[in-house]
Design a protein that fits this description.
The chain has about 180 residues and is an alpha+beta fold. It has three helices and six strands.
């Protein structure tokens, strides 16, 4: 039995309709958005770690919403607007206090539009006060996840909205006593 070509292609039509749609690429490869967003996340961490407060507008929007309340009192809170975020950061890490934000993963969850993206980011932050290495309120390590929204403004991906979730059991004290190193 011979099936006419036109009829055979109609039989395959339901299969084609079941295929998931391709995500939009908005005129550029998805890898470009992933790379630029990842670089934006690294630049965000570097700006904070180097205390480049005057450069915060390069990595955050003016109306930034940053909620790290889940980290607990003394370690997190809610800050809205670039000025409030800057004030909190300056108070948290004054001169003589050090910290490091390790961006371990930045996953582009969804490219919502060409200028709006949602990501999930995992970060390990260490903060230390050389004069208080055994005081967990001044020297600590936290593992957390950020559910973020980024906006492309002035050619830079900037953090616009972030909800921080603690992924560790609690805030960690990274220094557990003296460690002596001997050479024999």
């Amino acid at each position: 039995m011979h099936i006419p070509t036109a009829f055979a292609s109609l039989l395959l039509l339901p299969l084609a309709l079941c295929a998931p749609p391709s995500p939009p690429n908005y005129g550029y490869p998805p890898t470009q958005a992933i790379t630029k967003l990842t670089q934006g996340g690294y630049k965000f961490a570097l700006t904070i770690d180097q205390k480049q407060w005057s450069n915060l507008s390069q990595v955050m929007t003016e109306d930034i919403y940053y909620d790290s309340s889940a980290l607990g009192a003394g370690y997190g809170g809610l800050a809205v607007g670039l000025d409030q975020v800057r004030t909190v950061l300056e108070e948290t890490a004054p001169e003589g206090i050090y910290w490091e934000h390790l961006v371990t993963n930045l996953y582009l969850e969804k490219l919502n539009t060409p200028t709006n993206a949602s990501s999930i980011t995992y970060i390990t932050v260490s903060r230390w006060d050389p004069s208080a290495l055994h005081d967990i309120t001044k020297t600590y390590r936290i593992y957390y996840r950020c559910d973020d929204v980024w906006l492309l403004q002035d050619g830079n991906w900037k953090l616009s909205h972030s909800i921080v979730r603690n992924t560790g059991p609690r805030v960690e004290a990274p220094y557990f006593g003296s460690i002596s190193m001997s050479q024999e």
